[in-house]
Each structure stands twice: as structure tokens, then as C-alpha cells.
Structure to design on (230 residues):
């Protein structure tokens, strides 16, 4: 199972919006609404930000939103804040009953 | 407080074995599917294995199938990962992870991780 494809890096200024894409195949993202997004600041464990494409766990700000179209999922962060600077990973359930992560995207807040 | 605490990591020679443990607290462990996810130094997250709540279903990534075994002891609120025939590319931080009930692949609680280094 190949990793999902994410851009290595994105950046934005405080207050702006950024979108991180996550491209898979018809065997994972394209077939299931089981896409999650994780935030990982340096040296810490990942934190669940979005699950089942667009659901936010309690405590996650509504500045974070998720969507999906075909084989590509997206995470949008609006009203960018300095504290949002971190690595972001997408993941999906697959037709092999396994899970696959993306390669990760480093978000820099300028 | 809901918590997962891994232990058992360390330095092992290629071909060797290691058993990781994950102690769960603050929630009803037996109700949840559990997973292991690893992260090589400076690299991304990689899903390793999962086990359902009553241990009747286990699944593995192709890279560890036949070498790693996931198990659990619900009476002791503990998850395990038996790792055999270890290779250099198994070197990583191993995270114990809880999955949300009725939300596949939503990994909501993560341990702090335990480092496994495979080297001669």
C-alpha cells in the first residue's frame, strides 16, 4: 500500500487560510469516507483534528475543516494562527482492511 | 485521565526480537479497537497493526506481516506488539493508539511512544 500523497510544505500568514491536499486512489480515499487528519507539533504525539472526512472531535476549533472529492481529501485551516504551525498527516482506510497515512505536510506560519 | 503509556523499546540487533507493551487507563479498554503506528526518525507516520476489542480480528501492514504479532489482555488493560526478525528499517518510535468507537481510522488517543532501534 503506497502512502497517500501530500505536498511537503505549505505556508501562510496569520489570519489567512491554507488548504492541504491528500491524494489517494479508488482503493482508499475514493471508496471510503474514512479519512482523518492529524496535527503533530515537533517532538509530540499526533492529535486527531478531523475524522470521517469532515467531523471535528470536541475541542478542535471550527477553523479546521475537511472535505473530499473523488480520490482527494483536503484540510482547510482558516484564520491561521502561530500555534497552528506543525506537521499535518492525512490517513485513510483501504480496501485491504488496512490503513495508510500521507507523507506529511509541514505548515509554516509566516 | 485517559492515557496510554508504552514501554519495552530499546536497542536490538538485526534478527532479534522485542515485545512492546501499552498500559491503558482512564477508559474501558475492552470496548475499543487498538492500533500500533510507527514513525522513523525525521519521517512520517506509518500504520503497523490493529486488533479488535475481543482479539478475534487482527490486521497487519505488509511490511510487518509474518514478523509482528499484536495482542491484548483486556483483564490487565494492556496492548502488546511482539516483534520478531527485526530489521534496520523497523527502527522507529512506536505509538500505541486508540480508535474511536464507530469511527473507523479515527485515532483519538495516542501514547507518548517508545523508541525501537535495530542496529548492530
Amino acid at each position: 500500500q503506497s502512502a497517500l500523497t501530500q505536498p511537503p510544505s505549505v505556508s501562510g500568514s496569520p489570519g489567512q487560510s491554507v488548504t492541504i491536499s491528500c491524494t489517494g486512489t479508488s482503493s482508499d480515499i475514493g471508496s471510503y469516507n474514512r479519512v482523518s487528519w492529524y496535527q503533530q507539533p515537533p517532538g509530540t504525539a499526533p492529535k486527531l483534528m478531523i475524522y470521517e472526512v469532515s467531523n471535528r472531535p470536541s475541542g478542535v476549533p471550527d477553523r479546521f475543516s475537511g472535505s473530499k472529492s473523488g480520490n482527494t481529501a483536503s484540510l482547510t485551516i482558516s484564520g491561521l494562527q502561530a500555534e497552528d504551525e506543525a506537521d499535518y498527516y492525512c490517513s485513510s482506510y483501504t480496501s485491504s482492511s488496512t490503513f495508510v497515512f500521507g507523507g506529511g505536510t509541514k505548515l509554516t506560519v509566516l | 485521565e485517559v492515557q496510554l503509556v508504552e514501554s519495552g523499546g530499546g536497542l536490538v540487533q538485526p534478527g532479534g526480537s522485542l515485545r512492546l507493551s501499552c498500559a491503558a487507563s482512564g477508559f474501558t479498554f475492552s470496548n475499543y479497537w487498538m492500533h500500533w503506528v510507527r514513525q522513523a526518525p525525521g519521517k512520517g507516520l506509518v500504520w503497523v497493526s490493529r486488533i479488535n476489542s475481543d482479539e478475534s480480528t487482527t490486521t497487519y501492514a505488509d511490511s510487518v506481516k509474518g514478523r509482528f504479532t499484536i495482542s491484548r489482555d483486556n483483564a490487565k488493560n494492556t496492548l502488546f506488539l511482539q516483534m520478531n526478525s527485526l530489521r534496520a528499517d523497523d527502527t522507529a518510535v512506536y505509538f500505541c493508539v486508540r480508535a474511536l468507537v464507530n469511527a473507523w481510522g479515527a485515532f483519538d488517543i495516542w501514547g507518548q511512544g517508545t523508541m525501537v532501534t535495530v542496529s548492530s
